[in-house]
User: Fold these one by one.
Assistant:
Number 1:
Amino acid sequence: MRYRGRMVVLLLACASTSAPPPPAAIGAPSAPAASADAAPRPPLTTPTTPNVVILDVDSLRDDAVEPHGAPALARLAAEGVRFTTTRAAAGWTLPGFLSLLAGRPAEADLLGERIPEPLRDRLLPALMTTYGYHVAYTWGDTLLASHPDAGAWFGAEARSFPTLTDAGAHLGELSEPFFFLAHDVDLHPLDRRVELSGAARLELPSEAVRAEYRSEYASNVARADAAVGAFLTALDAAGHHDDTLVVLTSDHGESFGDHGWMGHGVNLHEDVLRVPLVIRGPGVPAGRNITTAVGTIDVAPTLLAASGIPVYAKMTGQALQPLWTGGALSERTFYAQSNAVAAARVEGDLKLLVLPPECGDDTPAGTLRKPACTWLFDLAADPGETTNLAAARPDDARRLRDDLFGWLGAQSDPESLRQSQEFKKALRKHGYFDAEPGK
Ligand SMILES: [Zn+2]
């Protein structure tokens, strides 16, 4: 028996190897230097504070943003800064999305039935609301809307729209500055279309199946691109081309059979971890490609800095403005985890990936802390992750592995990953299978 019938939760984290300094608020009016780990404060917004839009196109691979298949996404990239080496915070939607809002690793406290109060009040929408933003969102019929805690993420005052199109039609009704986040343009139906669990590591599908999968994915990217393009047209028509920061990204990528994985869920190879990240707006140069490795957990600190809002102290992502103003970021380390089944760590060009013994056979979830199969890749020489260097470079493998397992061990008990029966139904509906950690 393989992973079929079991959802496996993936987490990706990104953190600096040392505590990063509080990011500077670049181009922001009177930005406080202190962190926001404190009681609510008066609004900081001014008439020049930018509006903020995040377009989270679910399951969007980094290589999907090209003129032929996604002209609107490519045009947006040409109008702003594109980060060409961006890793999502997870291999599936919930932890990927919440890490985006939390600006920090998708660890166990982001995955339970309820996000702990102190953390929930420090998600990006809550911070934006506290400091004077008017929050709106859309996520349609997605997995996120089914989460029992979802209503609290955006706050009682937030306005919701059924679709991105509907939001675009009502932009003029939003008080400024506004923060709008869209997540309703997802590509998830692919998972059900080929009747493969996102958590399934299977015998490599036939080339015909893989080709069909890629073709359907391309069609859905085109559909998402059209929706985003129409929204951007509406945004411009509402007079917000020059006063609004627009961020395009995704909560994870998608696999087409490489390394034996289809869809997303367990896989921690680069096809799932690498996603687009584009930022356009006031103060952001146009047509700039930045190759420095960044993460989606950097989005929240970047937007807070741009808005003059102090960054919550526990956000370990870094504001990205220095990368287009001549500065640099602290040294980065990226972590990924899959419900205590798979994990990865990226340090520079070295990537460590671990799975339990048998590497995809009937291995109980929650056993990651037991001996695991280990892969070590040099991403610079081997971007396709085809050559395992673990035996050839045992010291590197051991060092990365010790650090990775230390990170895993410091998290909450896997018990906190349990989900309600209702949410498990939603997981199945959206192409995932449920899991009971530790069983
Ligand atoms: Zn997703």
Number 2:
Amino acid sequence: MITETTEVRSILTRTTGYLRTVCSHSLQPYRGCPFGASLCGVGCYVRHNVYVTQGRDWGSFLEVRANAAEAYRKAFDRERRWARERQEGFVIFLSSATEPFPPGEARHGVTRSVLSAMLDQPPDGLIVQTHSHHVAGALDLLRPLAQRCDLRVHVSIETDRDRLPGLPPPASSVERRFAAAASLKGAGLRVVITVSPLLPIADPEAFFARVAGAADAVVLDHFIGGDGSALGARTLKTALPTAMAAVAPGSIELAYRDRMAAVAERFLPGRVGVGPDGFAGRWVASAQKTRRLDAERGAPEGIALPREPADF
Ligand code: SF4
């Protein structure tokens, strides 16, 4: 992998598209992602973004944004004012197009420097989104930050399997990510498991029971509707759907997400979110909507009916 150090003029990106109702800004301490050649990289929507890749293979490069913290400090007043005038506060998603805790973070420390800057100049809300168990190593910064802003740590665990046929393993094992989530939750942080994109789950009951023990809420997202293209067209061009279908043919249909959401709801009642609503922390609203839809369809109290795409 080619690693280079760069400087950026701005680090806070005003959100559009999928994240528009989730947060006011995204922040990428790195450009590129070392996890691009691992399991999550196969279906990663960023690999299709030519602005980011500039023709390079996804997972083959990492740009270290050495002045990210300085850029954050400089932009803080202006971007917070903009966000508060237009949105529901200055809420940052860290990160949507890279892994904030890649292996090199121990050496480069860019994410840590940004979190330190946020301790001095906190946003209104911060969503830390990671595929790495190394997030637990930032507890010394995350815990005081949780006192200064509305902080959620999102740990992506897309399935209970460490391998799908023909695909590379995850960069951080399922076990290690569950352990990181549990340790952060045990330390008093609000933790959300993001099952995104949802991959075939071998034992849904055991998986969501485990999620309920390691996190405060869960978010499910399917590549259909979740990869930024109509009907999952981007992901359908990758090896991911074939591997998913080889394990569980129904998992490449949107109805699979709805079946898994119904299982999740039994273990985390009122704490299941779907798609952007879930990423925004609107899981209670999602659950209420789910129950209303069930009632309208004549389901007995406490029984979840299979969802339809239009429900979300
Ligand atoms: S960690 Fe995130 S940005 Fe990196 S390859 Fe995986 S999904 Fe993409």
